[in-house]
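Self-study notes.
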Amino acid sequence: MGDRAARARHGRRSAGSTAVIRVGSMQEGDVPSIVGLEDPSLVHEDELRAELLRPWARLWVAREDDDAAAVAFLSTWHVADEIHVLNLVTRPERRRRGIARALLREAIAYAQRASAVRILLEVRRSNAPAIGLYRSLGFFAFGVRARYYRDHEDALEMMLVFGPTGEIERRPDEVCAAP
């Protein structure tokens, strides 16, 4: 799983500059920058290091520059013929630039190479931007986990399904995404 470039160019908010998003496998040296992406109570260094050792875990990071610290990460588990998205985090000031999309595309490509039949995830029901991103990639809502998060917000269960030849099968939502 070497370092694969996402090969996507996205405009930065500063006038005239662009950044190349590079997606690669997460390494031990990425852990400190990943912990700094969001609330430290949500992502712990010890947990990330443990994930790196699990043979079923697949973790990717995204960088905007060749040697820059990670600005986003995606953690998944490959269990049997399914990929479970555990966490997708982008540095707040880097959101809405295609970085999460690049990470998810890398996970989708991995799932297709591994002959997975589906990718599963949960998302806050109130997180309309994330739900829109997931739908644009082929995910659909299939269930609700009531009071799933610490603050008792519901989680929307979403799935991306692959057909027999690995193509994404687009399906309509099976449950209402709105709270």
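Second protein, same conventions, sequence then structure:
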Amino acid sequence: MEENNRSQSNLVYTGSDKDDLIVRSEHLFQRGLELIETLKPESANSKSLSKPAQNTHGLAAKKTNTNALEQFFLDRGSSLYHSAQFKRAIKELTNALRSNPNSEDAYFYRAMCYFNIKSYDNAISDFTSGIQLDPNFPDYYGGRGKCYFEKGDFDRAIKDYTTLINLSPDKISWYGTEGKSYKDERDRDNISIEVRNRMAAYFGWRGRCYFEKGDYDNTINDCKLGLLLDGNQGEIYFLIGVAYLRKNMVLEARDNLQVASKMGVEEANSFLVQL
């Protein structure tokens, strides 16, 4: 039996009530719109209770101010998103956007839902709406870049990943002018592991885009930057190895493929037996 417990209410809905709940929530939405029209802006807004959610794509939702009705649907939508019920989540997040067309959290979560059901054009549209609301929030670009990558539009993906890296508040500040050496090794220790892992992933994704375009030099450069941040990513070693192989640099390819193999990347073994 499914339960949906809400922190802001004493009500508990069970699985047998879920169809009725959908109908009632639509009715509540209409009543709420009427109620909000009578409220002053100060009382209609409240601090968002939504948690900046980490997800498998390395992106995080943004905290924004919300009105009560928007928050109701946003909480339901984000909960369904985290339960991988993406189509149901889209309906709730659409209701949140009907309540507040400028809800950045709703655009973010709905875009991620569209991404997970491979509706990339709709995801791109929602990430773009988020960018229009706040062009300085890096993870909108990360999400949109991943969509472009999946669509095979590598030039746009590279552009978004470049913007993401440049905008990120945790941008690596210890690279030299060519972005290849630390200014102070101690600086690395002052950056959290989580931030380093995320930034490594950003460089890795841009490297993948360059690889798909046949630009192996930039692939290797970006992947090496990623490994400076997180040297435990076997997939990045694998990508470097294959890029070197495409450049007919067999020794360099073997070295990186061997590291990838030791890290559990099984695909590396099929290349190594041919070297």
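Instructor comment on the second fold: The chain has a mean pLDDT of 76.
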